[in-house]
Specification:
It is a single chain. By secondary structure, this protein is mostly helical. It has 2 domains: 142 residues, no CATH class; 51 residues, no CATH class. It has 5 helices and no strands. The protein is elongated. The two termini are 30 Å apart.
């Protein structure tokens, strides 16, 4: 393999690593939004439910609504308990921490890929070992995401792949991520662009 081939191979490998890291960042960010919404809702419900129920119970004493408010009190307490158990079983807080750490690691990988692209004399061995390790973490955390979400993440990663370059296209279907029209490309979900 001559120097040009080695450069092209290195360049392509680093771009693929960067695309994978940017895709993972998108998926982790989306997952964190969902986890945070659930976690924040649970905290808010934990704080507001007792206050509202106590206020309603106090105001309903001696009225025809007293039995109804007591029933609502029991049901809301049961629902709150069920949500708390669900959060514990799903390990929501642990997942949130894992997603945050993995997003930081992928952000490092994406930025370091750019640095290594700019400095072709630097050794890749340490970096590729780190990427391989993070890939295992990513497979455990985000492997079961919907195909449409993965495709959206890949399109977003293409937009950021080479800063300032809007001519980047999907390597499979040659379609621009900036001109999305739902199609049958398995990688980006876009409509293939016919190469002339």
């Amino acid at each position: 393999m001559n120097a040009t081939d080695r450069f092209n191979s290195r360049h392509g490998k680093l771009l693929q690593v960067r695309a994978n890291a940017l895709t993972a960042i998108f998926l982790y960010s989306r997952g964190l939004r969902i986890i945070s919404a659930f976690s924040n809702s649970l905290i808010l419900a934990s704080l507001l439910t007792p206050i509202v129920i106590l206020f309603a119970l106090n105001k309903s004493i001696g009225t025809k609504f007293e039995d109804f408010i007591e029933l609502v009190s029991y049901l809301s307490s049961a629902l709150l308990l069920l949500l708390s158990i669900t959060a514990l079983v799903l390990r929501v807080d642990a997942r949130k921490e894992a997603f945050l750490a993995a997003r930081v690691a992928n952000n490092f990988i994406a930025n370091e890929s750019l640095e290594l692209l700019a400095n072709p004399d630097q050794d890749l061995a340490w970096f590729l070992r780190y990427v391989s390790s993070q890939d295992s973490v990513d497979q455990n955390n985000i492997d079961k995401m919907r195909v449409s979400l993965r495709q959206e993440a890949y399109r977003e990663s293409l937009k950021q792949l080479v800063p300032g370059d809007s001519s980047v296209t999907c390597s499979v279907c040659n379609a621009s991520p900036y001109k999305f029209k739902s199609g049958d490309c398995q990688l980006c979900g876009n409509t293939p662009n016919e190469v002339v």
